[in-house]
Design brief:
The chain is mainly beta. It has one domain. The protein is built from one helix and five strands. It has a five-stranded antiparallel sheet with strand order 2-1-4-5-3, covered by helices on one side. A hairpin with a 2-residue loop joins strand 1 and strand 2. The longest helix has 9 residues. The chain is globular, with a radius of gyration of 13 Å. The relative contact order is 0.25.
Length: about 90
């Protein structure tokens, strides 16, 4: 799987993330999203609200793809779970 838009963050703090839908330790789907925060990337990619993972078996892993080093306060990935229903578009 490749993500052609991988690059350094641009103006306005928009970053590129890979949003992975997980069941236990298995990736069941992956999406690419551009957003200011990992939280926003997960919501934009999935079309639903998310919250912190807790101990959920079905969860969302968000990996920052921009070229920034990770630290204890800025990890490489974030864990969420979905809440609510997926938003639908009305055409």
């Amino acid at each position: 799987m490749t993500f052609p838009n991988l690059k350094r963050p641009g103006r306005g703090g928009i970053k590129v993330y890979r949003v992975e839908e997980m069941e236990g330790d298995t990736i069941v789907a992956a999406h690419e999203a551009a957003a200011k925060t990992p939280f926003q990337a997960a919501e934009n990619a999935l079309g639903t609200q998310v919250t912190l993972r807790g101990d959920a078996q079905e969860w969302i892993r968000v990996v920052e793809l921009t070229e920034t080093p990770s630290t204890r306060l800025r990890p490489n990935f974030y864990e969420f779970k979905t809440i609510g229903r997926k938003r639908t578009s009305h055409n």
